[in-house]
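Incident log, structure service

09:12 report received: a user says their structure output differs between two submissions of the same chain.
09:20 pulled the input from the user's history:
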Amino acid sequence: MIKVISVVGARPNFMKAAPVKHAFDSLKNVTHLLLHTGQHYDAAMSDIFFEELGMGKPDLFLGVGSGSHAEQTAKIMIEFEKVCIEQKPNLVIVYGDVNSTLAASIVAKKLNIKVAHVESGLRSFDREMPEEINRIVTDSITDLFFVTEESGRTHLLHDGKKYEQIFFVGNTMIDTLVHFCTNNSAPQKGNYFVLTLHRPSNVDNHEHLKALLQSIEDGAGDCEIYFPVHPRTMKTLKDSGIINNLNLTKWKLLDPAGYKDFITMVRGAKGVVTDSGGIQEETTWLGVPCITLRESTERPSTVELGTNTLIGIEPQMVKNAVSRIATNTAQNLYSKVPPLWDGRAAERIVNIIMRELSLS
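09:34 re-ran on a clean worker, output below:
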């Protein structure tokens, strides 16, 4: 009997792993275990996603909790090593670019267990982003690479990976989105923006965050701003006193949203402002204008084909970009769905894994 462990740790992982779990569940000749490291561990950041995505409870839970990058990665490695020694999987699947991705891939390879990386090959070329380090290190020791867009294959080949190791399969996050949109009607369009902010470079500096929020408010005109606030961002808002000066007739400060509520909110929005990665992909598939508050993106297809615009963080640039969408004067906002973003990526991944494991 083949045994596979999927390792997830944070919200973006859950949407990517859910369709893979469902595809494995339909097979009889494989044991697939879902392991949650606990990197995101509270109900708002974790439990609700497992419930809404139909994943059930994880088969294994490490409960590592918060900490610095080093502390969190170390805790995951210590606990995951015990799991691998006990379970003896044939393959470990890691997703995306969080600390859990890095930690699990290192543990598996040191125990001579094959590693598959879903969403491999993406590069922002900004090594100040912790996620970029996680991507580079994970891809340096991966055996099976599942890429979401052609840039992933290009980067991996440039790094010396063999063509036969790389599989262009599409995007499992889009699988989850396709399933949701197929089973839930779209809301009416509203006069509001959705904002998400969580990157330390954007939220940890009080003056910087204050200027960023002001530029978004100024650009939004008469549009409201729905702001599901990440715990890290909320701490800064409170510690700095910024929260006391926000115009709450315009700002709607919300708790972190579950998957269903968040996607429904985005589908009805005039536009999205974010510093996230996955939201750039979701808005491209949905055709919703997206402004990304970063200087670079590891998902270039969302800019080349989709509605995503890289703006950076200079206040006047941010204000102007938001204003163009608020007043319907944005230019060149079109959306073409990237190849293989068709809701069947997980099916392709599982078929390839079963074939490759049967040959090994």
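09:41 both user submissions now match this output. Likely a transient worker issue. Closing.
09:42 reviewer note: Residues 69-87 form the longest helix (19 residues). The CA atoms of residues 199 and 275 lie 7 Å apart.
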